[in-house]
Amino acid sequence: MDRQFINTSSVFFTLLCVPIGGPRYHKFTILWSFLSLSLSLSLSQMGSIKPEVSQEVLPYLIEYKDGTVERLVGTQVTPPGSDPQTGVVSKDVLIVPETGVSVRLYRPIDTPKDKKLPLVVYFHGGAFCIATVGEPLYHNSLNILVANSNVVAVAVDFRNSPEFPLPAAYDDSWAALEWVASHAAGGGSEVWLNENVDFDKVYLAGDSAGANISHHLAIRAGSIRIDGLKFHGILMIQPYFWGEKPIGSEVTDTVRKGMVDIWWRYVCPSDKGCDDPLINPFADGSPLLSGLACDRVIVCVAEKDILRDRGVLYYDALVKSGWGGKVEFMEVEGEDHVFHLFNPTCEKAMNMIKRLARFINEESEI
User: Fold this and answer.
1) Cα-flanking dihedrals φ and ψ of residue 229, to 5°?
2) Predicted model pTM
């Protein structure tokens, strides 16, 4: 059924259910207006019928059989600039012209020239198929994190699936680290990095799929050295890890378990399914956690998040892995996945941001 007809029908039904005062003919006026609107919409859409649906990956997108993709969320874009509420300024920089990969840079507005700050390289979430660094929720969240942590941040705008299947997101993110490293000697193309970054204090960070990317880049950096960067830690916010066999709340929450299964199999249609090492760090073929190329990790989970138990499993496994670094854990009670994006200034979100800021700056003061 046409989605626009469904929407207008809902409006009509709502109007009829709302008590309307005055003469009875007012309802007939509303009915006539609805019929006129519905007819107008139907006529305007004749000749532009959408192609047949190939797959629905709800609530994120719909892919059609002609190969086009309609994203249902994560399509809004906020431009960079000065944010008076947080005192943070941002700008976009194209870093790999061949692929179109760019980054959004953030720093406190009043940062003096040659003042060296820790660097946070941030990877956004979105199940590897939606959102960009310009998504308003992410832009606002990064402004808040930078303001509270007093850091420079590089948010990576990697390419999304299905147009660019995995491992494109990982490769784009690795290319961003190499671009950052090109500034370590002070002769890079971006003045903010040359002047204001302490390359001995680099943190990988991300929420959901972005936390997953942070893990894999830290593993890769353990075997492939990036000269000029010293990775001090990872900030993992409600990390997106998964597996074929349900654990914890997944056992009884079969609806959400099945939904996340669909998400992953869509962006990574491998024969290993949800036990692909990219999504399950404990599956056969996964590299050892002891290979992480950093000294510290903080894992943040949310109590009501279907991904919670995977984050707990990651924390427990890292503690027992023989890695040798320090791992911290934080659970936010009563909240669900990426709650801090939707309500960034609530008390629980700000408590989490402040915990992350302490994590960064405690190390920076050593």
Assistant:
1) -115, 135
2) 0.87
pLDDT digit string (tens) for 186-243? 999 999 999 999 999 999 999 999 999 999 999 999 999 999 999 999 999 999 999 9
* Cα 332 to Cα 355: distance, rounded to the nearest angstrom: 11
Pairing mode, strands 88-96 and 101-108: antiparallel
Q: Which residues pair with 156 in a beta bridge?
A: 103, 123
197-207 and 117-123 strand pairing: parallel
Average pLDDT, the chain: 89
Residue 257: helix, strand or coil by DSSP? helix
Q: What is the pLDDT of residue 49?
A: 76
Q: Of the given ranges (13-17, 186-190, 346-350), which has the lowest mean pLDDT?
A: 13-17
Q: Give yes or no for a contact between 79 and 130, defined as CB atoms under 8 angstroms apart.
A: no
Q: Residue type at 75?
A: T
Element (H, E) at 56: strand 53-57
* Helix segments in the chain, DSSP class H: 3-17, 25-45, 136-149, 168-181, 191-196, 209-223, 254-267, 308-319, 339-342, 347-364
> Residues with Cβ < 8 Å from 146, sequence gap 6 or more?
86, 88, 106, 107, 108, 120, 152, 153
| CA neighbor of 314 nearest in space, from 270, 279, 349, 338 | 279
Residue corresponding to tokens 């959400």: 256
List residues with catalytic annotation. 208, 305, 337
The C-alpha atoms of residue 86 and residue 278 are separated, in whole angstroms, by: 35
Nearest-10 crossing angle of helices 347-364, 136-149:
50
- What are 284-326's pLDDT values in tens digits? 999 999 999 999 999 999 999 999 999 999 999 999 999 999 9
